[in-house]
Amino acid sequence: MMAIMAGIALLSPDLIRRSKTAQSIHSGDLDHSSPERTGTQHAVVAYENTDADSALNLHINNKYSVSCHMLSLLNIFSASSMSSPKFAKSIGRKEVVALSFGAMIGWSWVLLTGDWLTRAGFLGTAIAFVIGGIAVILISLTYAELAAAMPKVGGEHVYTYRALGFTASFITSWAIVMAYVNVCVFESAALPTALEYLFPELRQGYLYTVEGSDVYASMVAIGIGGAVVMTFINYIGIRFAAFVQTLVTGLFVIVGVLFLAGALGFESQVEAGPLMKNGVTGMLTVLIMVPALMVGFDVIPQSAEEINLPRDQIGKMIVLSVCMAVLWYIAITFAVGLSLSGEELAMASVATADAMSKTWGSEQAGALMIVAGIGGILTSWNAFIIGGSRVLYALSESRMIPEIFSRVHPRYQTPHVCVLFIGVLSCISPFFGRTVLVWLVDAGSFMIVVAYGFVAWAFIRLRKTEPAMERPFRVRFGTLVGYLALIMSVLLGMLYLPFSPSALIWPYEWLVVLIGGLVGFAFYIWAVRRR
Questions:
Q1: What's the whole-model pTM score?
Q2: Does the structure show a pLDDT above 50 at 401?
């Protein structure tokens, strides 16, 4: 994927120069002390400072003239003028936190906790989450400042275009599309798998096997049913989607708190598992999972234009949700480690549910924990539909992908075509088996780290090129934080490369990255020719 990115950049140096020319018009002739000015106003001011006849002649002789740049700015930077009447500000503080926190807390806190403790022990796991959490918090701080300064649909798409230009914005946005859509299609397979823990006889009607994963008609039907429901929830409006997110998040948080309370009051008759296992190696094997587990806070910037909060509060909610997620993972791991011995951990299929059953002395309590984990699947799925549909909308509105994706439902005020597109993919994915879908998620995790790096770069550049930009949430020691976030993004990205123990699987997962990159490259060429 890095090679593809470099190829895109080398393919069109003239395009990069043209983007810089457009940026010079944007940054040199306009007053950036008021970022609320719409793209239309920017273009009008730039046009009024240009001789009309000269501009016309340039347009006739060269289709990439200054006037075309102004039209490009009109298309790209008019998020406020084009989008504001279309999207309703209907998300409040609770919904924002639930959206971000629920996206980060999926099924893994129920399914993988025993694996973390087996690999590293509680102390090793806690250290891994603290280190990984610090990295993600630094990255989230750059998002927080940019989202508060430019609360527009599309988030990263807007920031990177303004700071780095067309090519960088496309790479960033396409990376996010791959990451978000891949998660959504995976969830339609994760849902029936989770339900199988409650209903062991769920697998009925064997169809075929794909890469070692058996596909059953019953599992496919449940996955499709879940996809239809989640698509409908998001189709009829973000207010209802946010309500569902808040409700489900609240329910699984209650279950988690009950589990923690039970573990703290539980008098175990066996020795708890070791605090530290396998030294630094064990800790690193958990650390490499943390970036993928923490993906989700960035759905707030995607829907920032629909958030009904003061702009500085948007930034604060991003950072708060990341801190909450880190504490949640550590607390659940602590509770499981306190409840189960090393032998019990080794034998447990779902350690968190087994620990819940043991601390409360009831099999029903364990089943309740599984239900809470299913709630995590739904909140993650819901959040990534919201985020993925908004970034697709932003790409379309910028004329980087077909215009059909920028249609907004006149009644529900949702990018319904984007929602339906993700929904259709989610309905198809259960037919491919769980193994293939895991490849998609792993490849998507790598792509989101690529996007993190570009956002950090945009943050640093805007601090230099637009120091007077209004920043309602301003990060202290911003330049230092920006460089640290960029370094952390690069280091996280290296975890997926071939020399790392968590490298993407060759050739399967790298093939997913390659195919996704080639599709994006085709859209990029199409978009460049349209300009």
A1: 0.80
A2: yes
